[in-house]
Structure formats: C-alpha cells, structure tokens
Amino acid sequence: QVQLVESGGGLVQAGDSLRLSCVASGRTFSSYAMGWFRQAPGKEREFVAAIRRNSDRTYYADSVKGRFTISRDNAKNTVYLQMNSLNSEDTAVYYCAADRENCIGYGCYVHANGYDHWGQGTQVIVSS
What we know:
By secondary structure, the protein is mainly beta. It has no helices and eleven strands. The chain has strands spanning 4-7, 10-13, 18-24, 33-39, 46-51, 58-60, 68-73, 78-83, 92-99, 117-118, 122-127. The strands form two sheets. Strands 2, 4, 5, 6, 9, 10 and 11 form a seven-stranded mixed β-sheet that branches. A four-stranded antiparallel β-sheet has the order 1-3-8-7, with no helix packed on it. The radius of gyration is 13 Å and the shape is globular.
C-alpha cells in the first residue's frame, strides 16, 4: 500500500509560480509511475502530467505544456510539479497519483481510473 501526501498549494497571483510536492510512504515508490491531476469546481478531474519510474519519459496535457514541469526524486520518495505562468484556469485541487504500470505513451497516463493510489489533494487558487 502506498500513501501519498501533497503539499505546496496556495493562493497566488496570475503569472506567479508554485511548486507542488507529493511524498509517498513505503519503499516501493520507484516502482510506480506518477501522475498529477486536477479538479476545478464543477468540473471533472483532468490529467495534468505524468512521469515514468526512472524519469525517462514525461507527459503533459496541452493546457500546461511549456508552463508545468513534472519531476521526481526516488531517493526522497517525492514527485514534484513545478507550475509557472499560472493563470486563473489553473485554479483547482491538485492530486498526485501512483500507477503500478510503467507503459510508454500518453494514453497510458491520461485516465484517472488507471491509477492505483491517490493523495488527498492540495488547493491552488490563482487570482487574476
């Protein structure tokens, strides 16, 4: 069992940056691909970014490509989401998720039901 705890959310101005962190319990973090999702009020949870076990490939939603960067430190059991040039449409609760599969391809990671473990989420609010 993997437990995930996100942190780093907050209230920022449009154009600002934030870095989210997600720390995993247990010694099996490196055996999971990791993803970030977000859910805005009244909307479905949507894919943001994903990273394979050894960071050899990363995947991004078009809406964040070029602004967000996902990374991980397996020694620290942590995955990060660096978010730059934030705008009001980025306002949401952000969740990290762990996926036992480590397949190649955007389609492997874009669906929430493909993940095995979820964190509780961290709120990001961007004021314009």
